[in-house]
Design brief:
- The complex is a heterodimer of chains A (215) and B (127).
- Chain A starts with a helix and ends with a helix.
- In chain A, α2 (11-36) packs across α5 (114-140) and α2 (11-36) packs across α6 (197-212).
- With 215 residues, chain A is an alpha+beta fold.
- Chain A has 6 helices and 8 strands.
- In chain A, a hairpin with a 2-residue loop joins β7 and β8.
- Chain A is 43% helix and 27% strand.
- Chain B has a single domain (4-126), classed as Response regulator (Rossmann fold, 3-Layer(aba) Sandwich), CATH 3.40.50.
- Chain B is built from 5 helices and 5 strands.
- Chain B has a 5-stranded parallel β-sheet with strand order 2-1-3-4-5, sandwiched between helices.
- In chain B, α2 packs parallel to α3.
- The longest helix of chain B has 19 residues, at 108-126.
- Chain B is globular, with a radius of gyration of 13 Å.
- The relative contact order of chain B is 0.18.
- The chains are: A alpha+beta (215), B alpha/beta (127).
- The A-B interface holds A 15-16, 18-19, 22-27, 29-30, 33-34, 39-44, 136, 140, 211, 214-215 and B 10-14, 16-17, 20-21, 56-58, 82-86, 88-89, 104-105, 108.
């Protein structure tokens, strides 16, 4: 954790946030498993908080697969507001579609082409994960959020592109890195919750309130 | 009677929540471990009456730790605490010999119920 992050969140705040995310990801595993009907394990999410302006550099350093990614974006609005970005390396959509499709008829049998189905699968996974994560955070922290529909904002996109992350430089990014393990297949995914100073202030108070609720 | 509890969880906040939810009046000795491996070592060292076990942890996960603890003591009373309540997870921890699964974050009532079940299980083992 760098000096800037420590300024944004104190150690105790980060520990509470980490536990809230652990719970949220546990719930997300269960939700995703219900949809695709196979056993899903999400690794212990690694949480970092970074400034918006540092996100492109952070992404380049952290996601070093082929360099090409797909990015799904979904806005959320509540006391905790912002946009969620779910980033998968290219190729993850094929793995996910195969998993979604296990036991079903061959993809070629329907009217939609495979490329579209793969992207729709990414959007659906994004919708489930972002919904479960934000929803659980909101529930635990006594907030109510509404969502925009998820959308694919970048396809086969290079993180070296100067406009890879269309976010406000003054915002904050809560980075949640996890590996989705689907029985035999691993897919690495990155979830970023991009939020503003006001939401961060609310989040800090809500995290302490969450802990105090167990008194 | 539950006199000692081992809480195995990588999150210091999860361990703190668990301790806060336990009834203070019982005077229970709490032992903490921050991953499965440490949990197994502390189980062997302290032989607690009850173990609360998280599943998703670095170094060693809760499934492995649970099976190792059961290998040390087949009568060990272990309650799994997890937010991941997939049917296959529940089935697996049951097969490994967990007494029950507690959904995270635990409520005081859920924890009181788990303690009651643990006391009954201990009484059965000791009789």
């Amino acid at each position: 954790m760098n000096a800037m992050v420590e300024e944004i969140f104190a150690t105790e705040e980060k520990d509470i946030l980490q536990e809230v995310m652990n719970i949220a990801f546990g719930q997300a595993s269960a939700d995703l498993a219900e949809v695709i009907d196979i056993f899903v394990v999400l690794s212990v999410p690694n949480i970092q908080v970074i400034q918006g302006r540092d996100l492109p550099k952070y992404l380049l350093e952290e996601i070093h697969s082929s360099g090409l990614v797909n990015i799904i974006e979904q806005g959320f609005l509540g006391k905790f507001s912002g946009q969620a970005l779910l980033i998968f390396p290219c190729g993850a959509e094929k793995v996910l579609l195969n998993l979604f499709n296990q036991g079903a008829e061959a993809v070629g049998g329907c009217d939609i082409d495979v490329d579209t189905l793969e992207l729709e699968t990414l959007m659906e996974v994004g919708n489930i994960l972002i919904g479960a994560c934000i929803g659980k955070i909101a529930e635990l922290l006594q907030d109510i959020v509404t969502y925009d529909p998820p959308r694919l904002i970048a396809q086969d996109f290079s993180l070296e592109h100067p406009k890879c992350c269309p976010i406000d430089e003054n915002s904050f990014a809560i980075s949640i890195r996890t590996v989705f393990r689907f029985e035999q297949e691993d897919v690495e995914g990155y979830l970023f919750l991009i939020t503003n100073q006001r939401s961060i202030e609310w989040l800090k108070k809500a995290l302490y309130a969450f802990l105090e609720s167990f008194e | 009677m539950v006199k000692s509890i081992l809480i195995v969880d990588d999150s210091p906040v999860a361990r703190m929540i668990m301790k806060k939810c336990l009834p203070e009046s019982l005077g229970i000795t709490i032992i903490e471990a921050k991953n499965g491996q440490e949990g197994v070592e502390k189980y062997q060292q302290h032989q607690p009456d009850l173990t609360f076990m998280d599943l998703t942890m670095p170094v060693m996960d809760g499934f492995t730790a649970l099976s190792l603890i059961k290998a040390i003591n087949p009568q060990a009373v272990v309650v799994v605490a997890t937010a991941d309540i997939q049917e296959k997870v529940l089935q697996r921890v049951e097969d490994l010999g967990a007494l029950l699964t507690l959904k995270k974050p635990p409520s005081k009532q859920a924890l009181a119920d788990a303690l009651k079940r643990a006391k009954e299980a201990l009484a059965q083992v000791r009789s």
